C-alpha cells in the first residue's frame, strides 16, 4: 500500500495538474506553492504523509462505533451559534474547542466536553477530529454505549469478537480517540451503577495503552464527551481509570453550560 501511494505522489510531482489534484483531494493548500525545488519537495512529502493518514483513517472509520450505528461528520464551519438563545456562549465553546484542536497537533492531551444532552458536544468533538485528521492525525470515534452493547452481545454472537478486537486495537493505536457519551453506559442519572466488568476491563486496557507510566504522560490524545459529573463517573469506573482519562487542567475541560438542547430544532 505504501509503495503504491509513494509512486502516485512521485509521478504527480512531475505533473503539475495531477499534483494539484492530489493535493486538493487530501486537503493540502497549494495556492501559495513555492518556486524552489526544496519547497516543492516539502509539499510533496506533506501530500504523501496526508495520503497515508487518509488511508489509515479509512480503516479507523470501519472500526469506529457511532451512536445508533450512524456514521456522522462535522466541521467547525457547520456550527451555528444562532441556534442557541445564548449565542455568545455558543461562540465561546466553539472557540475553546478550536483552540484545543490546534493544541492537540503539538501536544498529546486529554480533553473533556461536558454538559447536558443535545447542546452540541458531539458535534464540536467531531469538528475537532475533522480538524486534526486533515493535519496528519489518525482519528477514531467510539460511542461507549455501543461498545458496551457489543461486549454484552458477543457471548450470544461469537462473530462479534473480531469486530470488538479490531475496535479495541484501533482505540489503542489512533492518534486521537473520541469517547462519545462517556458515562451513559452507567445508567440513568437517578440510578447510576458501576459499569459492567467487561467494559471496565476493556476501558482500563485502553487507558493503559494510552498512558506512559515512565513519562507520566498520555500517549496520543483523547477527546471525551459526557453528560455526567466527575463524581458520577467515579461511581461508574475505577478511580485510577478516571484519573487517567479526565484532565486535571481546567483549561482542557469545555463546559457547555447555559446552552439549550437543540436536537430537532429548526434553524
TrEMBL record:
Q: Name one GO molecular function term.
A: ATP binding
One Pfam family recorded for the sequence: IstB_IS21
Domain AAA+ ATPase: from-to ranges: 107-251
Quick one: a GO biological-process term for this protein? DNA replication
PANTHER family linked:
ATP-BINDING PROTEIN RV3427C IN INSERTION SEQUENCE-RELATED (PTHR30050:SF4), CHROMOSOMAL REPLICATION INITIATOR PROTEIN DNAA (PTHR30050)
Full protein name = AAA+ ATPase domain-containing protein
Q: Which organism is it from?
A: Limosilactobacillus reuteri TD1
